[in-house]
């Protein structure tokens, strides 16, 4: 499994090359951080021979290396959280790269991505199975979580020293549930 959390506020967390390179780094380690898998060593040696060992992988090189790494594992799951945080103009590059890996890998590769609804993202993955959730789909779970958390915070004395009347507790829960908007 390899994972990445996208963040629009951080440049290295919204660029396809950075995202793929982080996934590669996670998949390239064979059981320990000291030993790298053969495809990574091979690309490093080829770059070293060409005098380019310090240069970054291109998007194309990253795609190919990711396919080679996923071919080593019987199954790979790639998790991308907050995919919508990658800029619209370059998000398609990331989506096409992930699609390339899924299609070209000899073994099963699953992509688990979370995102706010976006037609561009849905269009890129329309040929693959997916489960769509709307904010309303988990409202009851979130409400239960909020009520449980508020109660435990009161019980632990962390909210108003544990002295919270029923009306105030209900109001706090209602406001938190309403503002969560299913998130």
Q: Could you give a short description of this structure?
A:
The protein is mainly alpha-helical and 183 residues long. The protein is built from seven helices and three strands, in the order E-H-H-H-E-H-E-H-H-H.
Contiguous uncertain segments of 5+ residues: none
Describe the biggest sheet?
3 strands, parallel
SSE order, one letter for each helix or strand: EHHHEHEHHH
Proportion in helices: 40-55%
What's the rounded overall pLDDT mean? 89
Secondary-structure content class: mainly alpha
Which sequence of strands runs across the widest sheet?
1-2-3
For the terminal residues, how far apart are their CA atoms? 24 Å
Number of helices: 7
Radius of gyration: 22 Å
Query: Which descriptor suits the 3D outline?
Result: elongated
**How many beta-strand elements?**
3
Instruction: Determine the strand fraction and express it as a percent band.
Output: 5-15%
SSE topology sketch:
Blueprint (H helix, E strand, L loop, with lengths): L1 E4 L10 H13 L9 H12 L9 H14 L2 E7 L6 H17 L3 E6 L5 H6 L14 H17 L10 H15 L3
Parallel strand pairs: 1-2, 2-3
Helix pairs in contact: 1-3, 1-4, 3-4, 6-7
Structure description:
By secondary structure, the chain is mainly alpha-helical. It has helices at residues 16-28, 38-49, 59-72, 88-104, 119-124, 139-155, 166-180, and strands at residues 2-5, 75-81, 108-113. Strands 1-2-3 form a three-stranded parallel sheet. The model has no long low-confidence stretch (mean pLDDT 89).
């Amino acid at each position: 499994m390899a994972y990445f959390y996208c963040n629009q506020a951080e440049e290295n967390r919204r660029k396809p090359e950075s995202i793929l390179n982080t996934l590669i780094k996670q998949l390239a380690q064979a059981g320990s951080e000291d030993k790298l898998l053969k495809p990574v060593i091979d690309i490093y040696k080829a770059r070293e021979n060409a005098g380019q060992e310090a240069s970054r992988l291109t998007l194309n090189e990253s795609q190919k290396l990711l396919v080679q790494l996923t071919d080593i594992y019987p199954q790979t799951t790639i998790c991308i959280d907050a995919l919508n945080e990658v800029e619209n103009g370059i998000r398609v590059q990331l989506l096409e790269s992930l699609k390339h890996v899924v299609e070209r890998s000899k073994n099963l590769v699953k992509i688990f991505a979370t995102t706010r609804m976006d037609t561009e993202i849905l269009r890129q993955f329309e040929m693959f199975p997916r489960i769509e959730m709307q904010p309303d789909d988990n409202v009851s779970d979130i409400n239960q979580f909020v009520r449980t958390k508020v109660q435990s915070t009161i019980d632990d004395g962390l909210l108003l020293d544990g002295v919270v009347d029923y009306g105030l507790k209900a109001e706090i829960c209602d406001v938190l549930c309403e503002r969560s908007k299913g998130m």
